[in-house]
Amino acid sequence: VHPNVSQGCQGGCATCSDYNGCLSCKPRLFFVLERIGMKQIGVCLSSCPSGYYGTRYPDINKCAKCKADCDTCFTRNFCTKCKSGFYLYSGKCLEKCPDGLEANNHTMECTSIVHCEASEWSPWSPCTKKGKTCGFKRGNEVRVREIVQHPSARGNPCPATSESRKCIVQRKRCQKEGKGKKNREEKRKKSNKDESKETRQESKGRAARRQNREQRENNNKTQPKKRKDPNKEENLAPVDTAH
User: Composition bias, kind Basic and acidic residues: at what positions (predicted)?
Assistant: First the structure.
């Protein structure tokens, strides 16, 4: 078909025709042929559409088709996104991922298989039975660990995160709840009572001594003094008058 070049082209065309659309593009724009029915129309775009990749030449920038299984590509031989049903791996679209890799249905890519990883075991817990640490001889002790890396779909599953084993302890009686506190309270009350009793006894003793002292002082004040009898002979030693 004769191009029949037109003047005053629209849509970024440098040259165009009424029948074939754009024949060349303005600088930095990509030329691509779009199929409409049985014919192709040239258009000029700032970037290539899905399923095409762009190449730049000195005289023209063109969009070329990606491979049939590729949705978007960087070059014809390097895909960046695959069509439905294919998995992307190293720029190629595959129906099945290679050995050692697994299909990621979320990203539609072939990725490395990730195995589970667990942390080190914690120390063993105290020996218990029914939640208590006393009142028994044989019980159980437990240790745990955490999962630090969850596996992918084909990765090795995670191991158990807890272990339990039998244990033996020196049997001891359990204090009833509140009994120890009650005993301490009773001892404190008894101690306070003994101290109060001793204090009262000391106070009574001091009061009694003070009362006796005051009684003696009153008796001394009220009792008359004894007078000396002049007629009473003094006890004198006998005088020897033999000579």
Answer: 175-219
Cβ–Cβ under 8 Å, residues 49 and 32: yes
Q: Within a domain: residue 24?
A: yes
Supply the DSSP string of 63-96, one letter for each residue: EEE--TTEEEEEETTEEEEEPTT-EEETTEEESS
Give pairs for 87-93: CB < 8 Å, separation 24+.
Answer: 93/67, 93/69
**Nearest residue to 170 via CA among 139, 209, 203:** 139
Of 156, 160, 161, 145, which Cα lies nearest the Cα of 115?
156
How many domains, the chain? 3
**Model confidence band, residue 217 (pLDDT cutoffs 50, 70, 90):** confident
For residue 159, the enclosing domain spans 118-168
242 phi and psi angles, rounded to 5 deg? -65, -25
Whether 122 is in a domain gets the answer yes
pTM of this structure: 0.48
